[in-house]
Amino acid sequence: MEVKAAVCSGNTEPFTIRNVTLDDLRPDELRIRMVASGICHTDMAVRDQQLPVPLPVVLGHEGAGIVEEVGSNVTSAQPGDRVVMSFNSCGHCPSCDAEAPTYCYDFFPHNWSGTRADGSPTLFADGEPMNGNFFGQSSFATYAIAHDRNVVKVPDSASDIPLERLAPIGCGLMTGAGAVLRSMKVRAGMPIAVFGAGTVGMAAIMAAKIAEANPIIAVDVNDERLALAKELGATHAFNGRDDAPGKIREVCPQGLGYAFDTTGINTVIEQAWSLLAPKGVVGMVGASDPADELNFNEAMFMGGGRTVMGILGGDSDVGPFMLELIGYHLEGRFPFEKLIGYFDFGQINEAIEASESGKVVKPVLRIGNES
Ligand code: CXF
Ligand code: ZN
Asked: 20 to 30 A from 103, CA-CA: which of 51, 129, 170, 249?
């Protein structure tokens, strides 16, 4: 089937929209007509080759759309269903068995190899294989092949919520909210600081409010984002250029129960660690330079029972957690629509620029109509 896709060839040229061919479906696959896709920093990390996904490639991993066709073994959705997509996983390794698929032992071949896990291409361009199957979807396209394990049917209770709004739930939002609710299991009444107020940080702040953490401190270098963080639930907001650690110490003289880093900057992570109370947890989700090392004082680990926690995808189990988040959104407790700026599919390069300049927290591409 001929479809239009945004092809990424690296950071020396813009994404270009071109015709590609979608492969036939395998028994566990679905063909989705894309309605919208969020853009995430991980797409940019591939463009910049911080992640070794082969180029050229069709990226996009926050897709939402309508199911057109399903393979014979698919149980997650049926033709006509409204769905959101997330990351893919193998379904039979120790992590998948423990409902922790973000740590799938075979994460790379299922998400980042440019092909299906068995090495076969899902996309072709000019008769040659084209890298795709990014996060098991490659959603920067008018149609996508997804898998039974990474598709979630939108519940009827959310039939009034447009798919273009729900699209980012499958990565950035689930990562921030999951880090608070599932990975760190933030407790009511405990102080948390969130470093970096992008999509993941903002989702963490909304989730911290759901968890009834207190205080909830946002740290960023962008004052507009700090103002939005306060609207979403932060009780305090400090500019990182203005002695944020000192101010956090004033608000929380006993230290932080939780510090959540979305920046990936090692000095910020080390500062966050130094602010922890006994039994405190620093959660790290930010993409950092693969060569980076962190320094932590040994006595502070052991003496205070502190934890440094690496977090992927907020420990999401995909379907159930996505439904939980949609539920919070319907109750008005997860108002992530405030983060979104919409762009037409053809404006993908402008959307990326708006995100990288800090103008838009979560760019979402409008790819097709719902009906
Ligand atoms: C991912 C990382 C691996 C688990 C799912 C989410 N982040 C994407 O940007
Ligand atoms: Zn992502």
From this structure: 129
308 and 339 together in one domain = no
For residue 303, how far is its CA from the centre of ligand 2 (angstroms)?
36
Cα 246 to ligand 1 centroid, rounded to whole Å: 32
Q: Using the mean position of ligand 2's atoms as its centre, give its distance from the Cα of residue 300 in Å.
A: 32
Query: Which stretches within 184-318 are classed as H helix?
Result: 199-210, 223-232, 244-251, 266-274, 298-304
Same domain, 165 and 283: no
pTM (predicted TM-score): 0.97
Domain enclosing residue 284, as ranges: 176-312
Supply the pLDDT for residue 313. 98
CATH number at residue 300: 3.40.50.720
Q: Which residues of the chain have pLDDT under 50?
A: none
pLDDT, tens only, 51-88: 999 999 999 999 999 999 999 999 999 999 999 999 99
Whether residues 238 and 115 share a domain: the answer is no
Euclidean distance between CA atoms 142 and 329, whole angstroms: 27
Q: Which atom of ligand 1 is nearest to the CA of 40?
A: 9
**pLDDT at site 288:** 82
**Domain co-membership, 212 together with 121:** no
| Ligand 1 pocket list (CB less than 6 A) | 40, 42, 87, 102, 171, 175, 312-313
